[in-house]
Specification:
Blueprint (H helix, E strand, L loop, with lengths): L2 H12 L5 H13 L4 H16 L10 H11 L8 H12 L3 H22 L4 H9 L2 H11 L4 E6 L5 E7 L4 E7 L8 E9 L2 E8 L6 E4 L9 E8 L14 E4 L2
Antiparallel strand pairs: 1-2, 2-3, 3-6, 4-5, 4-7, 7-8
Length: about 250
């Protein structure tokens, strides 16, 4: 690893955005090159300055979606330019090309963060919202709504499932604990049951029995939030093929 590659990892670490594998690469490189510690310290100080550069404030609604949309359309280095061509050639031959591509996204993200800081929202508020799973962001939004509701059911196995929903937000999130891990040829499928109609709302897996799953589509007041066990990939018919193991009314 050269110094430039380490600098990219140091920037990501300062924003708490490294994967476990990159964390190990960062630690190994720093142990092998203690003289690079100044780079890491500088990046950490810069991140701290951004985080404390403005009074803490609640982010405006929809900030995560807006920022991600901005990052998606942020122009990158023109690959036809001499600089862009050189970077692409280097990225194609370097063993750390994935980290370099990540670094370009980081630059766009940093520019967006600076913009939001200028509006009075600290990086410490913005960055976690960008890195959180969509289901967690949705759950926080639901819990902050004035009409937030939740209901918990316990399965015969002892597992628990809690549905969180808000009619004004129009979203629902299911949180499970102790749910069985399925075989590879099976999956859990979510449904909005609306009257006599079952609307598919996504698939999810458990991690050691726990899951936080955002239901796809708009939730309507009075829907039943249900879960069935289906074949891998979901129901081939678009309708439940088994009896629901979880059914939570929202009315």
């Amino acid at each position: 690893m050269n110094e430039d590659e380490f600098a990219e990892l140091a920037a990501g670490r300062a924003l708490h955005a490294l994967s476990d594998a990159d964390e190990r690469r960062y630690a190994d490189a720093l142990a092998a090159h203690p003289e690079w510690a100044a780079i890491a310290e500088h990046d950490a100080e810069t991140a701290a300055m951004l985080a404390g550069g403005a009074p803490a404030a609640a982010p405006p609604a929809g900030i995560r979606d807006a920022l991600l949309a901005q990052i998606a359309v942020t122009p990158q280095e023109d690959p036809t330019s001499p600089t862009g061509a050189a970077l692409d050639a280097e990225a194609a031959s370097a063993p750390v090309a994935p980290a370099r591509r990540w670094s370009r996204r980081l630059f766009a993200l940093a520019a967006s963060v600076v913009l939001i800081v200028g509006l009075g929202v600290t990086a410490a508020v913005v960055i976690p919202q960008l890195t959180q799973p969509a289901s967690v962001v949705a759950l926080e939004k639901i819990e902050a709504a004035p009409d937030a509701q939740q209901a918990t059911v316990e399965l015969e196995s002892g597992a628990e499932a809690t549905a969180h929903w808000s009619a004004s937000v129009g979203s629902a999130v299911l949180v499970t604990d102790g749910l069985a891990v399925l075989d590879e040829d099976q999956t859990y499928q979510l449904w909005f049951v609306r009257g006599d109609e079952a609307l598919p709302a996504g698939l999810f897996e458990t991690d050691a029995g726990t899951a936080t799953a955002l239901l796809d589509g708009a939730m309507h007041e009075g829907d039943v939030i249900a879960v069935t066990v289906e074949q891998a990939g979901g129901s081939p018919t678009g309708q439940p093929t088994t009896d629901p193991i979880i059914a939570i009314p929202t009315a």
